[in-house]
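Let us work through a complete example step by step.
Step 1: write down the sequence.
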Amino acid sequence: MVVARGAVAQTGAHGGAAPSLYDQIGRFLLDQRLSADPVNYIFAHNVLSQPGSPLAKAVAALTDGGIRLTLKDIETLGVTVSGAPEAVSEAKAEAERVVARTQMQLDGFVDVVQDLHADTAGFGRDLAASAAAMRQTPDVEEVVRIAAAMVERMQAAETRLEAATREAAELRAELEEARDNARRDPLTELPNRRAFEETFADIMATGQTVWLAVCDIDHFKSVNDRFGHAVGDRVLKAIGKALADECDGHFVARYGGEEFIILFRNLDIGQVRSRMDHVRAHIADKRYKLRETDATLGAVTLSAGITQAIRGDTARAVFQRADALLYAAKSEGRNCIRVG
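Step 2: predict the structure and record it as tokens.
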């Protein structure tokens, strides 16, 4: 995307330019494949609301010719949003801490209830046996009555404990589902960016050989422009499924927009290249059609950049290297793969 100088209309007396600026910000984030989080939104606002500023000029130069901004570019530009990154990060961290504490509390509660359930059942059996024995002695009828009443109360308590156990188990299942949903892309049902970052850290901790492929659908914007976002969504789902099927056994996620990522483990460079080239050819050979008219969309192709993660790499660092290789593949004509 090229940021046009002077593209933002001047605000009129009634603030009529606000919707236009809002639309431009949304388009900017979409074109640059930036998530709509507060930091990126404010960055886009700073660029587009001040078209003559040094920041806007720097972005225009970087994106000249349709080049897309990288995370490194944005970091290098050094736009500071007072407190925003820290606030967003801390909010996410606190939410994760709350979930973790709740999970631990639920686990402990279920364990305690199960133990109480077992103890209550045993105590009830013992009391029932004692009551049966005491019935053999006529002068202890009152003791038998008390013991029988106690058994009845214990049985009622056992019933309540069983209900509490079921409720706690259901709550734990709901919590697990909520945590899974937070790590899953709702459109493709693939893992999302958060799941990628967590999985990457887990795999790196094991010392395994890790390769990251960053894949992008070529000319995807034209699919949305020509056929609409509903068709574009179906294409995204189809590409996501093809990647997951062809890379079975490896981690496949939707990173955002039309970008997907794959983590390959314990493969050498030749195996990774061969697997990705097979996936690329498989997708290029498919012919997608409109469900409503049976008209063809034409070929949908994929470009990818692949790099090996090295010791000490963060998810962001290895992504940036693979993303740079993806850009190189795009500049070489698309429907190809670059490994570095």
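Step 3: interpret the result. The mean pLDDT is 77.
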